[in-house]
Structure formats: C-alpha cells, structure tokens
Fold this protein.
Amino acid sequence: MLSSVFFFSHSTSMLQNQPHRHYGITSPISLAPPKDIDYIHTQKLVEAMESFGVFEDEEELNHRLVVLCKLNNLVKEWIFELGESKNLPPSVVENVGGRIFTFGSYRLGVHTKGADIDALCVAPRHVERSDFFHSFFEKLKHQEEIKNLRAVEDAYVPVVKFEFDGIEIDLVFARLPVQTVSDNLDLRDDSRLRSLDIRCIRSLNGCRVTDEILHLVPNKENFQLTLRAIKLWAKRRGIYSNMLGFLGGVSWAMLVARTCQLHPNALASTLVNKFFLIFSKWEWPNPVLLKQPEENNLNLPVWDPRVNPSDRYHVMPIITPAYPQQNSTYNVSTSTRAVVVEELKHGLAVTNEILQGKSDWPKLFEQPNFFQKYKHYIVLTASTYTEEHHLEWVGLVESKIRVLVGNLERNEFINIAHVNPQSFPGNQEYCKQSRYVSMWFLGIIFRKLESAESTKIDLTYDIQSFTDAVYRQANNINMLKEGMKIETAYVKRKHLHYFLPAGTLQKRKKQSMLNISQNATGLRCKRASSNESLNSSRDDNSRTSYNSSSLSMISKLDTSTAEMERNATIWRTNGANSREKMTHVAVSPVSKGISIPVIGSKMEAAVAIRTSGPPSDCTIPTVIGHNAVSQLRTRFVQGHNELSGTQITTSKSAAPKRPHSPASKECSKRSKDREKLIGQDSAFKEDGHPEDVKRRSTENVDLGGKNKLLASIETSRSQRLCSEELPDSSSPVPTNGIRIIKRSIRLTLNQ
C-alpha cells in the first residue's frame, strides 16, 4: 500500500536527516531521537489515515504533474503570443518566459485525493492583469480539456477557477516588473515585491508563505505526515474553516511547523501528541511565530499590535513567516477559539491514551455529535429558485456567517455561538416555494444569570445586522436575484428533527466518543448520557422527504416568498432619491395557533404556531439605509391548544412530563420558570403603507438552569474590531428607498 511504502521509504532516513541548524524563535524543547515504539505508533497512524483517502497513488500523482505541465506550457505560449501582438522585439519575445508556481496543500505535499490545486501565474511586465482575465481566459475557453471555467475578478485575491482534465485548479496572477521570467525564479526574495500592485502582492503571498514554511521545518517528511494527520483531525472535528472563523490550511500548517521546530527529531506519532500538548496550553493571544519578523523598507502593512490598534483585538494570532507578515487567523472569534481549544484538549487526552496503549488512532478521528452538544440552536437557511443562483447565494451567505457569530457572541447574554461548518440540504416541505435550500446550524450557550430571576434577551439586532450585511453585499456586486432568501429560526435541541431527517440525527447517535473533562476556558454544557459523535458528511440524498404532518407544527420565522421577491427587486433598483426615509410599519397581532406540548426540565412549555391576523395599530419607525433596528413594540398572544376549535393531540404530546425532582409534583404550573420566544416580522414598503406579512412561530422555551455554562469570556470581545483585510461591509449602505424585512427573536431567560 502507498502509505506503507511512504512510511518505510523514509523511516530509515529520518535519523540521518538530523537538523544541523537552529529552527524557530526559541531553542528546541527536546532533541531526543525516536524510539522503536515511536516507529510502531507512526506506522499505525499511517494505517488509520489510509481509510480516509489522504494519500494519492502514483497514477494520480503523475496525472497532476501532467496537468500542471500542460498548464505551464499554455501560460508560456500565451505570454509569447501576447508579446508578438504588442510588437515587442523578436529577441525579447523569444525570452519573455513565464511560469506556473504551486502553493497550498499541493506545494506542501499534503493534498488528498480529489483535492484542488492552488497555482500562481507569474508574467513579465508587458502582461497586464486585464490581459490575464481576458485574453488568457479566452485561450482557456478553447481548450477541450478545460471545463467549468469562471473568473472572480473582484475577489480579495482575484482568481480564475476551472477544471483541467478532472483536476480543479484555482489560478491567481502576478505581474513582475521584469522583462523575462526565468524557470529558476525565486519568489522568496523580498525585493520581488518592490513597486508591485497590491493585488499582485496578495497573489504572491500564498507561494511565499508556503515556501517559507517548508524552509523553516527541520524534517519535511515528518512535517508532512504530521500535517496530514492534523488536517484530517481538524476536518473530522468540524474546526477546519478559515471562512467561518476557525483555522484554515495555512494556519494548521504553521502550528504543525512550530511543533516540528520544538521537537526536530520526533516522528509523526510523537509530533501529533506534542502538537496537542503545546497548543492546548498555549497562552492566547500570544502570537505563534515561525521566525522573528524582519525589518523591510518596502513600507507594506504588517501585523504589529504595537502600531495597528485593530491587531490588538486578534484573539488567536498565527503569523505568516513571509513578508509582509499577516495574521492568518484574523477571522477567529472568542467563540471559535473556545471551540478549537476544547478540541485541542480532547485531542491531547486521546493521543495520551493511544501512546499508552489504551486506545487506537481511529478514535482520534471520530466525529463529535454537534446536535447533542447544545440545548439551543439557531438555524440559518439560504434558498433560491435555481441551482446556478444557489451556488452563488450559498457562497455569499457562508462567507458572512462569521458576522452573525460575532454579533451573537457580543450579546451580553451569550457565552458561545458555535457554527457547524457542515451545511445541510433544506427541508423541502418546509421550503416548498424554494427548490434549492441549504441550512447551517449554530449552537448557543447562554450566560448564567447571577441575580435576576428572568432576563429578556433580544436577538433582533444581531440577526438583522447580519441579514442586512448579506443583502447589502449582494446588492453591491449585482448578485441579488429573484428568489434569493435568508431565513433564521431559533430551535431547541428536541425540535431539530423538524429541520433534519430522522436518519441524519439517528446515524450520528450511533457513534460514541470519549466524555472528556471540561475546563474553565472550554465549552461547558450538560451532555446527554454520553458524548456522541457526528458524521457531518452531507447526506447523499439531498432531497430527503419529510413528514408533512410533523412539519405543520413548525412555522417559518421569515417573510413570504412574494415579499422577498419584491424586496430583491427593490434592492436591485438604483433609486434617484438618496435621502434617508422614515417609514412606519403596521405589525399584525397574533391570532390563534397550534401548541405542541414539550417536556422541559422544569415545566411543560409550548411551541405556538401563529397565523396571520389583521394589522394592528402598532407602528415601527425605522431609518432606511442604516444597519439598525428600532425597538419593536407589539402585542402577542400565547399559543392555544386548538386551531379553529380543533384540538391537536399526538402520542408525544400526550406523554406525561418527567418531574423535575421527587418533591416537585406541580412543575407544569410554574409559569414563571419559562422562556418565551416571540417571533415577529414586519415589512417596509416604499410608500410607507402597511401590508400583511407572515408571522413567526412562538416557542416558550425553558433553559432550566441546569446546563453548566461556560465561564464568562473576556469582556473585551465586545470591543473587537472588524478585519481590515476582509471588511464585512466593504461598501456604503445604499440610501435609496429599500424595502427592509425586519425579523425579531426575543427570549425571556429564567433561572
């Protein structure tokens, strides 16, 4: 097998490749050579990783080399033809060169089966960026082996994406101020950055960082095998996503590289254990550095909290080794850091058992059961009418989810907002009018109340500012199309089956994981009888049918399709009136609804599904164009046990409630121990007249005061600044008359 060959082909040379120089910013922790048992543990680690497809066979590796060679020839041919079309002297045209460089996981030697290739096209000075996105794009179009060609010219790092003979490639572009680009060009030279366009500097950064990491590790083979294991572990545990505020590939690579620097002679099995040991105890926000930052006179912005105030609020800085040094984890928040640290502690406990012979490596790669970890969830739904629009819409919504996480964790009543990186196909019965639906789930831990018996929690602004950011961005880039919608819902753990098929939840309950010890800085929540693992892979059947009778018990929390269509139309309209408008909206009262009895830890709560009623006299003044929500004032009626005189009863609802304690016989009568969820929607028309809107579901939920909640995260998180590199709101708020959809989620938190 390939992995066995991989291991044994290098095991004999590992001791011979002892480091002869100092690596890193400190001296090593240990220079101890590996023992015989370390070789055995490493071989078992390789065998455990094989089943996850982390190794490519020789044929697949050769295929990638052939594809890259063809792409490199295309680049050289294009640059040559472009030189001729621009009337360069023949002697110059013959030697202009051009080259493809790789970076990312492929360059590091840790790519998996079917993984894409990150590549950089380096061209001489006579080639403009516009040439790359036009003439080279057209050249790629005419290649029979190239499919799914698309350009993202307005991205932070502009890129051309395509599939070349079955291999996905992301190609970025950099233009150097030189007449020729030779095949032996060294991009690690800082002088290459002089007088470059900022987009070219960003494009070069990927290659420069990757090459620098490889240059700073004492043993590349040990580094690569360790990184493969850590990347697999991070993906399986749901903490591999730079976009969603966790760590991306380059961040994990730098952490592994630092571990290798501190244990230069250790094998992969030992390095994996030391990785968890070092970073589960790391005193964040102290930065992780692979080398001392070097002074440079190029005057490019670098990460430096002494100079840049925004850098002081980065909670988990991991600094890239190549100039200009940047924090690769600027998206990490206090919530995502807490989740990562807890997983690191879990990894340490498991690897300690493995090295002691008490467990095996597959246990390290077990998946957690995200849907049993929390009692409270927020469900985010993105939907469209067409598949083409859905791919665009889901990409935009997913890129902004970290904004929602940041909004929620800055709420004074929330300790943790944990997003599951895995998206799930939507409930088709639940979203009948939208054919393509994707859902994300956020686990919520509320802060324990110290004194007050009950506290009102309003998540309206947190949700609304997120949806505003998404729609604003879609409007700015002319993406917003008919049928593109965002919907948000609050749901308790016991009601997740309304959003996910029973098979999805049941499959995850069959896999158990170690019940690890909790810590003051990690997540603390009351588990079920045991912590269970989650198979977060997407269900193959993306159109799973659902029980429509059960679905009738849960109503949508957002506006109707027709309203969203009108909203999208107005978002796309460039109104001439740039003045901010004051609008009043009538909120319809709650009418009768169906209630679903729920077994709570203290009382029997009810989920009320409300129908629309006539407009009330309640109005909401709102300034159009500002990312703010006025305090909503509305009346509400709790759900009744009947709708139009018809009582709803099910076997579940008829089941007796579990008593809170032997001495408590009348828990269901304690109406003060409950949590009320009030869902409200109101719509804004350009002329300011009210219109009927669908109402949200109301759920009385009970926190019960039994969960062990996380200790307070530092209050400075509320002061955390948005990243300057990837701004959440890159463009001004439109001031034309835009019809805004308001969504309100309010809770009453009880002890």
Observations:
- Residues 58-210 form a domain with the Beta Polymerase; domain 2 fold (CATH 3.30.460.10).
